[in-house]
């Protein structure tokens, strides 16, 4: 048994055991509970619904690895989406061309980066707690968005935008391809770059990282800027998927991004965790949502189950850590 566990850890990593076990449990339980669960329709639905949540989770991941948090990701995504929508509206609306879309997308990414830049600067130079800083940014972006849109939404975009949210290439959904590209980029960044190494160092011990010669302020600013850019990508996907933008789209995703990170083995205090287990955890949560929908549960019950699952995950991790200490 120990040899098997060691081989599994060598191939997949110890942090993959929990997400893979949860994936197997969801497939078995809902496979028996509903005859329609293990079908192409279910997995096709998951493939289209997963990307915006997945990209938002990646936006949450890097700040958590530094020991922080970005509570503003969903409203950063909305403001970025609104920036793209306003650009398209200013250039003809449904008659806008690809050039206007590229310009709007670049501006949306810039808005996301600016949001992260402000948070990163405040956190890095004032040492204010990331929860308070990102909460303040969330309130600001929400209020700004409500003021500019008067609580309404913006819709009516060119037809070539729709495939970004609903199209497929060789049978693979376009938004899923975008998510996979973001997962690969995040994995490479965290595992193969100096910024990734510095991110883990800061999450482990920011003072030790500073004494080791790491420019912790620069790293924190870059981490939150990248978080904002990733949130903006999610905003572009949501615009294409819903064919409209308003403040509040995806607001319930905030809880799920934190849950996915913890279910994927990310240390809530920073310094430890990988992208791939988080990606598997995202699939588990989306399959859980689809399974509950097939059983007739409404979205409110699904959200409640996610909240309970977050508590269960924290308790199980505490028991696991205590068991490991006893064994040692």
From TrEMBL:
Membrane topology recorded in Swiss-Prot or TrEMBL: Multi-pass membrane protein
Keywords: Cell inner membrane, Cell membrane, Membrane, Plasmid, Transmembrane, Transmembrane helix, Transport
Gene Ontology MF terms in the entry: transmembrane transporter activity
Location relative to the cell: Cell membrane
Chain segments annotated as transmembrane: 12-33, 39-61, 68-88, 100-124, 131-149, 169-190, 219-240, 252-269, 276-295, 301-319
Top-level taxon of the source organism: Bacteria
Predominant localisation class: membrane
GO cellular component, one term: plasma membrane
One Pfam assignment: BPD_transp_2
PANTHER family, A to Z: ABC TRANSPORTER PERMEASE PROTEIN YPHD-RELATED (PTHR32196:SF21), ABC TRANSPORTER PERMEASE PROTEIN YPHD-RELATED-RELATED (PTHR32196)
Protein name, entry field: Sugar ABC transporter permease
Organism per entry: Rhizobium leguminosarum
Lineage, top ranks: Bacteria, Pseudomonadati, Pseudomonadota, Alphaproteobacteria, Hyphomicrobiales
């Amino acid at each position: 048994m120990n040899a098997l566990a060691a081989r599994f850890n060598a191939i997949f990593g110890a942090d993959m055991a929990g997400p893979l076990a949860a994936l197997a449990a969801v497939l078995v339980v809902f496979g028996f509970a509903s005859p329609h669960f293990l079908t192409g329709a279910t997995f096709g639905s998951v493939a289209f619904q997963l990307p915006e949540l997945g990209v938002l989770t990646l936006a949450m991941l890097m700040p958590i690895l530094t020991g922080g948090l970005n509570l503003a990701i969903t409203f950063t995504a909305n403001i970025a989406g609104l920036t793209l929508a306003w650009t398209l509206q200013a250039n003809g609306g449904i008659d806008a061309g690809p050039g206007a879309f590229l310009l709007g997308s670049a501006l949306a990414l810039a808005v996301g980066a600016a949001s992260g830049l402000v948070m990163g600067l405040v956190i890095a130079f004032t040492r204010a707690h990331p929860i308070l800083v990102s909460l303040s940014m969330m309130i600001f972006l929400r209020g700004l968005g409500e003021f500019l849109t008067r609580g309404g939404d913006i819709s009516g975009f060119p037809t070539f935008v729709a495939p970004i949210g609903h199209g497929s290439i060789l049978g693979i959904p376009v938004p899923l391809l975008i998510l996979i590209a973001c997962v690969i980029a995040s994995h490479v960044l965290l595992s193969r770059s100096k910024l990734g190494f510095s991110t883990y160092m800061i999450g482990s011990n920011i003072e030790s990282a500073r004494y080791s010669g790491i420019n912790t302020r620069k790293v924190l600013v870059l981490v939150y800027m990248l978080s904002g850019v990733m949130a903006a990508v999610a905003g572009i996907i949501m615009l294409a998927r819903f064919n409209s933008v308003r403040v509040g789209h995806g607001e319930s995703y905030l809880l799920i991004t934190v849950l996915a990170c913890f279910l994927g083995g990310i240390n809530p205090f920073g310094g430890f965790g990988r992208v791939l287990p988080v990606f598997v955890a995202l699939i588990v949560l989306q399959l859980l949502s689809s399974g509950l929908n097939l059983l007739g549960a409404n979205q409110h019950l699904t959200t409640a189950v996610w909240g309970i699952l977050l508590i269960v995950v924290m308790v199980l991790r505490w028991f696991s850590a205590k068991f490991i200490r006893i064994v040692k």
